[in-house]
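Q: What structure does this chain adopt?
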Amino acid sequence: MDYTALQNTQGSAPEPETSADQREAPRYTSLIRAAKLVSSQGEFVCVIRDVSRLGIGLRMFHEIPVGEEAALELGNGKVFELKRVRAKGREGSFTFLDPIAVDQLIREDWDYPKRQLRLNIAMPLTVTAITGRVEAITDNLSQQGCRLDCDAAFAIDQNLRIAGEHFPEIRAKVRWRKAASYGLVFENTFMLQDFARLAATLQCPQLLDE
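A:
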């Protein structure tokens, strides 16, 4: 499931606001794009549903994290500071602390190379190789891979298995290494919903309470 693509951007037009709160800016709809919501409870996957220069609507795969202040990070590394206006279930509305250029967010000007959404979640993992098992730590996780810090020596393209508490066993391959750090790519990638709920499980499992 790929939410990184924008649907109907070429033909979409701003819709005038007529809701009771009388929002001042036109709001663009037809946005379905994955992003990262950073709050005091951790980093969580969300989907952008609509946006104006003053605010944004988000949908999550679990309850909205608590706290008024948050930040939205796009896949290209751009960060926008937010203040929560309302939250109901998995839907939330936020205002930008500073008005934004909507066109830049919609078309997502890439100042950095495009990459998968990454979460900075530190957790211990057990790595299994043909030489045995070793302990490692990851602090960077995406749908397709992770970065490991480990004292053991692994070769480029070496096949490994990684697992941890609340983290399913996954087959992975070493793509790069630098000193004691390794970049792994997963054999089977996470669906966005599974990735989002895994992030909540690892950081704030109460958000998953139905």
